[in-house]
Amino acid sequence: MTIIMILLAVAGGATLSIQAAINGQLGSTVGVFKSAFLTFSVGALVTGLLIFFFEPKHALTLMDVPKWQLMGAMFGVPYIVIMVLAVQRIGAAVATVAVIFGQLSMSMLIDSFGWLGNAPIPFSMSRLGAIVCLGMALFFIYSSSKLKAAPAKKPQQQVAAGR
Which residues cross the membrane (predicted)? Predict the structure, then answer.
């Protein structure tokens, strides 16, 4: 079951990268907030249908849970808006790895201290190694993006200078 959950999480990450690339293009065409609004509107509609048809009954409703747990819904808005802006400027790969770096760093703090009602998972050297490796991946992906972008501009500049 663990392998299935890991594979589903990887698939979820892949869909977030696709969403970021599409929303980056949409945001540059119609605007950042309209793109975010579409994402949340369609997401709310699809989720509402999933709740209606598939959600089993629970003892508690959204109004019965501790109110701080409802705040999680607000954290999707900055993510979508930031990704729409970032993908336009730095590309899908750099933006996605930067997001994953932020997710990994914060999730390790949450795990280490048992924040937000989660069971504590001790910080370890292997976890530190993962953060370092991902930081290096971010550096190399960003560096290679800059190198690829620079030669693409030079021929255009040479043509313009030759006119």
Answer: 36-54, 75-101, 121-142
State the average pLDDT for the chain. 89
Burial of 149 (0-12, 13-18, 19+ CB in 10 A): exposed
DSSP string over 83-137: HHHHHHHH-HHHHHHHHHHHHHHHHHHHHHHTGGGPPP----HHHHHHHHHHHHH
Q: Please tell me the distance from the alpha carbon of residue 101 to that of residue 74, in angstroms, as a whole number.
A: 20
pLDDT in tens, 120-135: 999 999 999 999 999 9
Which 8-state DSSP code applies to residue 67? G
- What confidence tens digit (pLDDT) does each residue in 10-44 have? 999 999 999 999 999 999 999 999 999 999 999 99
Q: What is the pTM of this model?
A: 0.77
The percent of the chain in helix, strand and coil, each rounded to the nearest 5, is 85, 0, 15
Cα–Cα separations (whole angstroms), residue 128 to 56, 90, 120, 145: 39, 26, 16, 26
One-letter amino acid at 36 equals A
Q: Do 8 and 16 touch, CB atoms closer than 8 A?
A: no
Largest Cα–Cα distance of the chain, in whole Å?
74
